[in-house]
Amino acid sequence: MSPKVAAAVAQLSDMTVSQLAERYEQVFCEECRSRNKQYLVRRIAWRLQANDEGGLSAESIRKANELAVDAEARVTAPREHPNVRVVTREPNAFVDWDQRLPPPGNHIERQYIDARVSESWSEEKVIQRLQQIANTNPSRDIHKIDSNLACAAARRFGSVKKAMEAARVTSKPRKPR
């Protein structure tokens, strides 16, 4: 690499993204569609070096163009095309819930001391357990008593509060801080 090209490549890292985009358009004679600084620096440096070293031979360029016509490969997706239909995923009932939690109806397995406990939470089981806890510990927070029940209630009913309403259980109002 000649000293002139080496100096030009060294200056690229000190340029802003806007300056790099402008330089890209000068070097490649096409619009710059990227705003990634590292990508622009690498592409411009590669083109400067290729221009300095002589680039590809005419035969290589011709062969590459022949192969490119047959390849049908795209670097980026088409902008807008009348034959392209945009597919969006339909939201399901669990969009706003934590994805780390299993969906309702799935079996929950957990390790408890030396035994594996497996349980499946149905709406009826959630309601039954909420009523049981309300009878034995009416003043305690359900999250503190049984966190698995709280997660299952949130999954089945949308929130613990809605599950408690379905079970006809009233919770003790929290004290303001």
Write a structural description.
This protein is mostly helical and 177 residues long. The chain has two domains: 3-71; 89-177, no CATH class. Helix content is 50%, strand content 7%. Strand 1 (107-112) and strand 2 form a beta hairpin. The relative contact order is 0.07.
What count of structural domains? 2
Number of helices: 8
Number of distinct beta strands: 2
Uncertain regions: pLDDT < 50 for 5+ in a row?
none
Taken as a percent bin, the fraction of beta residues is 5-15%
What is the N-to-C succession of helices and strands? HHHHEEHHHH
Shape: elongated
Give the helix proportion (percent range).
Answer: 40-55%
Radius of gyration: 31 Å
First-to-last CA distance: 68 Å
Mean pLDDT: 77
Structural class by helix and strand composition: mainly alpha
